Amino acid sequence: MDKGLDITLHLLALHAALHARPRVLASALQALLEASRRSAVLGHTFTDRLAAQSHTAPDWALAERTLSWLHETPMASLVLLGEPGYPVTLASIPDPPPVLFARGDPALLARTQMAVVGSRAATPAGLEFASELASGLCRAGFAVTSGLARGIDGAAHRGALAASGHTLAVLGCGIDRVYPPQHRRLAEEIEATGLVLSELPLGSGPLPHHFPRRNRIISGAAAGLVVVEAGLASGSLLTARAALEQGREVFAVPGAVRNPQVRGCHALIREGAMLTESVEDVLAGLPHHVLETLCVPALAGELPQAPMNVDVVSGVAVAGDTPGDDQARRVLEALDFQPVSGSLLVIRTGLTMHTLSSILLTLELSGRVRALPGGAFERVR
Prior knowledge:
Blueprint: H1 7-18, H2 22-38, H3 45-54, H4 60-72, E1 76-80, H5 88-91, E2 99-104, E3 113-118, H6 124-139, E4 143-146, H7 152-162, E5 167-170, H8 184-193, E6 195-198, H9 210-220, E7 224-228, H10 235-245, E8 249-253, H11 263-270, E9 274-275, H12 279-285, H13 288-291, E10 308-310, E11 317-319, H14 325-334, E12 340-341, H15 342-349, H16 353-365, E13 369-372, E14 376-379
Helix pairs in contact: 1-2, 1-3, 1-4, 6-7, 7-8, 9-10
């Protein structure tokens, strides 16, 4: 192949040599595009200059491999900084990725996005909330962006897909790989109706220093960021810091004070992040100009609930079909929105295990209580 005539090959050689230096790459990319507009023949002087600037010879083998990937992979594309199709929101951050490799529909980059991130070791309640939140955000008109990681990220992607919405996954590895491997099927589902992105060269592994770079893309492409469950040392806090530096709105979901997985969220709230319990909280916290970019339909109604009685003293709602409303109210008051063991419920309620089991089963069937592994229970929103 004539390297002097192929602009794409030159571009990929640039990326292979300078991908770890985004600002230098952006400058070189701009010069290359300008040169290509002036002349159809680039010659080797440009890549000679590249070698002198980067002290690295262009990796033509990787460039040719990437070019083959682009030609042979369905729904594969390149998105270049400064060219049509590059998202304006992402271009506005201090260090936008000069090159994005994409699988899926790149037109989704123009959609208003909300990022949802959180702990890899999430609790069942956290996973459920992330999924429900992502579904609600899609129904409100957003595309949901996350990092395809285990835990909250995966739940957010699945929630968006379940609502027939659009979701974007930003990888911390090359676009030709999937990390974690168990999310390969999920990545394929996202690619079919959404978009998978990476700024890293083909073959790049999921190295630790790749994820902070990925995180700035997740937050930079979005109008705001919601953190669902994050410990004090969580990478999600780094994403939140990046979002704040980029001028994005940051939302954090609170949790039980004894749950170490939410301490990072509580720290963000103390620092000024918006306490978030619902999609409505997100909509209320976003600037008006962001909401104007949405076609915001009415949020879909919740599934019909069983008839409820409300205790006028405690304000606790109790399923109408429950035998012994006073005892059911006592059980609900003894439960938290986090796991509680059956033995602790016996102590808190003063009921026998036989009576307690009957009430818990009825509350579970009415959707008020969830049974968890190990004989624990928790209340459902």
